[in-house]
Amino acid sequence: MSKQRPVAPPPPPPEGYRPHRRRGGRIFARLLIRLLLLLIVVAALALGWNYYKEQNFKGIIDHDTGLTDTVVKEKLQELGQLVTYSFEYSGVREVKDSLQISNWNIPGTTHTIQIKYNGTIKVGYEVPDIKVSVDNDTKTIYVELPEAKVTDNYIDMDNLSYAEQNNVFNPISGDEPTQELDKIMSEELEKAENAGIYELAEGNAKKLISGLFEAFDGYTVKFR
């Protein structure tokens, strides 16, 4: 019978070698650590937001009596004068004027004024005219808007282009250009009103006030 030769032991693994299963365990551990860190960050942000609300809106809502009309009105005062829509206009106006006899223009007496203009009409509300009331049972803030009105209508005088051709027999009067500008503003306002500026101003006001009152957590805004 022949003798069996002894089997040599396997060579040792190279330095730094780790079995595959341990490497997979390390990856899982890293993912777990990252997930825990993410949860910590989210929790910290939530705590920070709650602290911010407590500091900035502290005392706004009394847990016993609820939100008061006075507090809502004070919040509304932050808006100042409420301009909620602007209408831009521009154009060229040429005016010719002649002396007349029985509605007949006398030749050689015509003078001309030409005005190139840009203007703005602003529409909005006076904040003290806006009525607010609070129903704490239904957690509703009621807002009653007055009719929107024109708060300004002006022509940009810095960019006004003005030219005239005077006539010795029919000179341009000193207030004639001013009167023409007044006519332009009146006519442009009529155009703006036909374009629905008051309705547009009301829609924007409702969006703005609703956004402002989002500070009152849990309350709904309704317009009357």
Structural description of this entry:
This protein has 224 residues and is α+β, with helices and mostly antiparallel strands. The protein has two domains: 19-56; 69-223, no CATH class. The chain is 36% helix and 27% strand. It is built from four helices and nine strands, in the order ααββββββββααβ. It has helices at 20-56, 69-76, 176-194, 197-212; strands at residues 82-97, 100-101, 104-105, 111-125, 131-135, 140-144, 149-155, 161-165, 220-223. Strands 1, 4, 7 and 8 form a four-stranded antiparallel sheet that branches. A hairpin with a 2-residue loop joins β2 (100-101) and β3. The longest helix is centred in the first third of the chain and has 37 residues, at 20-56. The radius of gyration is 38 Å and the shape is elongated. It starts with 19 loop residues before the first helix and ends with a strand. Mean pLDDT is 84; it is low at 57-64.
Indicate the structural class: alpha+beta
Write the H/E string, N to C: HHEEEEEEEEHHE
Number of helices, where a helix is a run of at least 4 consecutive DSSP H or I residues: 4
Question: N-to-C terminal Cα separation, in Å?
Answer: 112 Å
What proportion strand?
A: 25-35%
- Give the total of beta strands: 9
What proportion of the residues is helical, as a percent range? 25-40%
Computed Rg: 38 Å
Shape: elongated
Q: Output mean pLDDT.
A: 84
Biggest sheet layout: 4 strands, antiparallel
How is the secondary structure organized here?
Elements: H1 20-56, H2 69-76, E1 82-97, E2 100-101, E3 104-105, E4 111-125, E5 131-135, E6 140-144, E7 149-155, E8 161-165, H3 176-194, H4 197-212, E9 220-223
Parallel strand pairs: 6-9
Antiparallel strand pairs: 1-4, 2-3, 4-7, 4-8, 5-6
